[in-house]
Amino acid sequence: MSHTAYQRQWVEAQASLNDLLTQELPAEPQKPEKDRLTAFQNLATMYIKYIHIFHKLEQCYDQIVHPQKRRVIRHVLDGVMGRVLELKNELVLLELSEFHYFDDILSDLKLAPGDIEIPIPKYFINERSKVLQDREKLLGQILAKMGPQEAKEEEMKMTPDEAIRLIQIHERARQGRLRAKFMREIRLQEERERLAANRGAPTLDADVAAVRIQKTWKGFSVRKRAKRERIEEMMFIGMIAPPQSTNPKNTPQYLADKTEHSRRVAQTDHERDYQKALVSIKDKLREVEGPDIKETMQDQIRQWFLECRDATGKFPDYPDEDEGGSVLIFKEKTPEEVEAELLEKEDDKGKKGKKGKKDKKDKKKDKKKEKKGKKGKKGKGDEEEEEEGFKLQPSKFLATVDESSKDYESVWKTRNEENNFSQKYDAELIKEAKRIEVETEIRQQVDELMRQELKNLKLAVDRDKGKKGKKGKKGKKSGKKSGKKKKKKSGKKSGKGKKKGKKSGKKGKKKK
Fold it and tell me: From CA 408, how far away is CA 506, in angstroms rounded?
């Protein structure tokens, strides 16, 4: 089978799986099934469909060579196998038996009994081939040290008289058979001679003899041709296997096994290239896009510093590494919301000490309330009884199957792979995954730098506030001193003015 055939088979399996998921994950919870036969029919149908999907996915995982597709198929395959086991357990609990009859369901689904057999997945052996080989080598070494174990055969004890008697019995029986065969041949020969004497000499015409010979030959040739045509027709409709070639390497089974082996070798080569690409693409992203990502993060964090300062009047506290660091900053939140969350956490830490004293009092009240609640629940439980009937238990594997189906729908269902004929790894998908890892690594470095930068900004702001406070105090003191000096100067000037006035008054009197 080709890459396209296995891709088509994967698509069919996913379509069947989506139908089952819509049935198992309805929008509204299903009501319990009261009819036991109906419950068995529904459960058995789901069980058989899951086994059919398992067969397809297991074959796809064994033969698809694309490394990224195989990871998605492996994830959904593990979920499907787990769900098969869960449904088998449900059938056992419902029927109270390990064996179930699916004849009607198989005929409705047009399947054969062999289609519901659960084989051991091939990757169980292929992925552990090295471990198994090492184990065989170790066992071989142990057996070689122990040496070959000789099987002890019990010898039958027989006396010479018994041996002679046994030989005589067998020899007499052989002679009796030969004598009977010889006498039968003599009787047949005498019978033939007697019949020939009664018939006399043959008197058959040459034309009649020729017609009989022709009739015998034509009948033989027609029967031979009819037999050959019948065999060809049966081979054509698939009722008879074609004749096997004398060379075992030309048989279809050998060619199919050879193709499967070559695809497994291609899987190993593509997986090795994929692992190398994971490292090389990540290094390339770190070199090419790393500086731009780092600069962008720093600009965003600085912008957040400014927005928080404008909104709250002070620089915010940088989130701790345990809380995610700058991941909280890049969420779609306003600076006020982030600041409020940080303040709430600080308040919660402060209130923990106060709450410790109140816990003892609250426990006593809670116990009383619980007792009252239990009494109330008992009364309600008598009134509201659960509906009787069969209902599936919660599954631990449906979430895995649903997640894998969503990955297939979002990534692989509509992906164009016309240019990827060899089915090697997809570099764009690797870039999308590794870009997140590179951003996480760079974010940790940026967090350390920005914590130090925020610390320096807070120190600078506190230093500026301290200088302004000192200048204000000095200004007040200088204002008081200047006021006193001005008063003294104004007093002196007024005294001089009085003296000048007196002198001018005296001069005026003298002139008069």
Answer: 119
Q: Which amino acid is at 421?
A: F
How far are the Cα atoms of 68, 309, 352, 396, 499 from residue 29, in angstroms, in the given order?
Answer: 35, 50, 41, 17, 112
Mean pLDDT for the stretch of residues 126-136: 87
Residue-by-residue DSSP string for 436-453: HHHHHHHHHHHHHHHHHH
Residue 45 pLDDT exceeds 90: yes
Residue 432 has pLDDT above 60, yes or no: yes
Closest CA relative to residue 450, chosen from 330, 310, 283, 340? 330
Mean pLDDT score across all residues of the chain: 80
What gap in Å lies between CA 158 and CA 165, rounded to an integer? 11
**For 390, phi and psi rounded to 5 degrees?**
-90, 135
> Could you give the CA distance from residue 370 to residue 376 in angstroms, rounded to a whole number?
10
Residue 18's pLDDT is 92
What secondary structure does DSSP assign to 224-275, as a single string? HHHHHHHHHHHHHTTSSPPPPPSSGGGSHHHHHHHHHHHHHHHHHHHHHHHH
